[in-house]
């Protein structure tokens, strides 16, 4: 598809611009800021053309400006794809912000395909370019830094061994049913065991504590046997249909994709069976890195942060670093559940690389404390990290009771509000997209939308001060 950098304006667009449509002050400032950052759209264009043999030929697709502006708007308003398409089509101001003007707005699936072409590395680079532009404009000096970690959940149900086994049975049965409708000779020898598997799963779910002690192993043994039979039969179906081809070439492609999915879920089913047998029947404690928490989002991590309301969370841990103005200067999607104290030194090195100097204040909660981290901040004037555990020395106790330390802790509390805004306003609480790459894409888009809104707010404040001075 042809991705035009700047689509040619037509007479209808000129008429649209003469209607006197005024944008919201924040959107207007964001639009003006983006207009002066052409390198941002160039990176988006490279991602949109990735994988195309002849990107300059074919029907015209959404240009990079419309794709990126629509993605930002989607995260600013926390809309889904359908609502995004409908709101842009119905609103003059949103048409102007996204650059559609009087043109036809694509359907929701076109936005979905365009956004999925973007890579997490591109969003990281865009955030770096936006931060650099804010520094060049004098909006951020990097004198104070506060850091914290949070968890963004993946879109899975609470994982238990019986529900995971049930997921394997129902998904494999459904896929083989679709395959049987496309293969010319049909499929023989595969027994539908979804009814018996569902019954065993529900019986386990409804057990009382006493029933679990007496009957759980027998029910699990039956459910594991059913799942093992389904996985074995599914592999037999793959062996029988490996040489069968459909008459229609499109059906042949669909058959190949279904076979790939069946093989994928057979491998996951074998892991779930092994995990359930070890945990329930043998009483082993399976290591966390060997567990699987969802056959749909296999990248999901189990996170324990000691929270009373949510002792266990399923998703990924996110590291965030915020400046005094509210700009998120660093963000990372972490692997597993690492301790918070390992992020202090890398975050200081990254801050010095971005701004050219170390922050005067570095504030965090007690999870980031370690003696090595306190020694690793010689250039920081105020290292505001409360001691975690152990008996405080008199010098340390006096320091944590000082007005400067308390002021630094009040500054640290601001990042909790930023996390709340990202969760409620930018859709970062739960990722509904599938796969690790789209998960990271959501985090990057939420951070980008936040930073652009902060920059727009700061620019508006600067303009007001200049007007008052004049």
How would you characterize the overall build of this protein?
With 470 residues, the chain is α/β, with parallel strands linked by helices. The chain has helices at 11-17, 25-35, 38-48, 64-77, 81-90, 92-98, 108-116, 120-136, 161-182, 194-205, 209-240, 249-281, 344-355, 371-375, 394-400, 403-412, 414-425, 436-469; strands spanning 144-154, 301-303, 313-323, 328-333, 361-363, 382-384, 430-431. Strands 1, 2, 3, 4, 5, 6 and 7 form a seven-stranded mixed beta sheet that branches. A hairpin with a 4-residue loop joins β3 and β4. α2 (25-35) packs across α18 (436-469) and α5 packs across α6 (92-98). The radius of gyration is 27 Å and the shape is flat.
SSE blueprint:
Elements lengths: L10 H7 L7 H11 L2 H11 L15 H14 L3 H10 L1 H7 L9 H9 L3 H17 L7 E11 L6 H22 L11 H12 L3 H32 L8 H33 L19 E3 L9 E11 L4 E6 L10 H12 L5 E3 L7 H5 L6 E3 L9 H7 L2 H10 L1 H12 L4 E2 L4 H34 L1
Parallel strand pairs: 1-5, 1-7, 5-6
Antiparallel strand pairs: 1-3, 2-3, 3-4
What assembly state would you assign to the polypeptide chains in this entry?
single chain
Low-confidence stretches: none
Number of strands: 7
Helices and strands: which structural class?
A: alpha/beta
């Amino acid at each position: 598809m042809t991705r035009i950098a700047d689509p040619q304006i037509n007479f209808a667009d000129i008429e649209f611009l003469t209607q006197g449509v005024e944008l919201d002050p924040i959107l207007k400032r964001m639009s003006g800021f983006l207009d002066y950052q052409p390198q941002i759209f160039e990176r988006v264009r490279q991602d949109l053309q990735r994988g195309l043999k002849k990107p300059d030929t074919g029907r015209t697709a959404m240009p990079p400006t419309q794709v990126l502006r629509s993605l930002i708007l989607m995260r600013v308003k926390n809309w889904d794809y359908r609502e995004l398409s409908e709101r842009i089509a119905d609103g003059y101001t949103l048409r102007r912000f996204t650059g559609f003007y009087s043109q036809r707005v694509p359907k929701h699936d076109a936005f979905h395909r365009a956004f999925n072409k973007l890579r997490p590395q591109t969003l990281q680079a865009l955030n770096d370019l936006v931060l650099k532009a804010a520094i060049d404009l004098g909006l951020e000096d990097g004198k104070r830094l506060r850091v914290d970690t949070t968890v963004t959940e993946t879109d899975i149900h609470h994982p238990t061994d019986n529900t995971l086994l049930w997921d394997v049975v129902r998904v494999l049965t459904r896929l083989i049913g679709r395959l049987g409708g496309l293969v010319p000779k049909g499929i023989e020898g595969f027994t539908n065991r979804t009814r018996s598997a569902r019954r065993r799963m529900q019986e386990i779910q409804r057990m009382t504590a006493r029933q679990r002690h007496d009957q759980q192993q027998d029910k699990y043994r039956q459910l594991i046997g059913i799942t093992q039979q389904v996985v074995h039969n599914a592999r037999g179906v793959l062996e029988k249909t490996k040489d069968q081809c459909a008459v229609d070439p499109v059906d042949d492609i669909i058959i190949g994709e279904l076979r790939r999915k069946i093989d994928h879920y057979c491998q996951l089913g074998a892991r779930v069976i092994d995990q359930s047998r070890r945990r329930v029947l043998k009483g082993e404690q399976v290591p966390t890195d060997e567990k699987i928490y969802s056959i749909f989002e296999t990248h999901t991590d189990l996170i324990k942060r000691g929270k009373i309301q949510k002792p266990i969370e399923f998703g990924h841990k996110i590291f965030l670093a915020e400046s005094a103005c509210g700009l998120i200067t660093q963000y990372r999607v972490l692997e597993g559940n690492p301790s918070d104290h390992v992020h202090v030194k890398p975050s200081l090195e990254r801050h010095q690389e971005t701004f050219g100097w170390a922050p005067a204040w570095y504030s965090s909660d007690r999870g980031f404390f370690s003696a090595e981290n306190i020694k690793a901040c010689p250039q920081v004037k105020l290292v505001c990290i409360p001691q975690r555990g152990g008996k405080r020395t008199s010098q340390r106790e006096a320091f944590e009771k000082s007005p400067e330390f308390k002021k630094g802790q009040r500054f640290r509390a601001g990042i909790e509000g930023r996390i709340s805004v990202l969760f409620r306003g930018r859709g970062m609480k739960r990722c509904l997209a599938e796969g690790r790459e789209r998960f990271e894409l959501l985090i990057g888009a939420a951070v980008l939308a936040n930073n652009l809104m902060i920059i727009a707010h700061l620019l508006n404040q600067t303009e007001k001060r200049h007007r008052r001075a004049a």
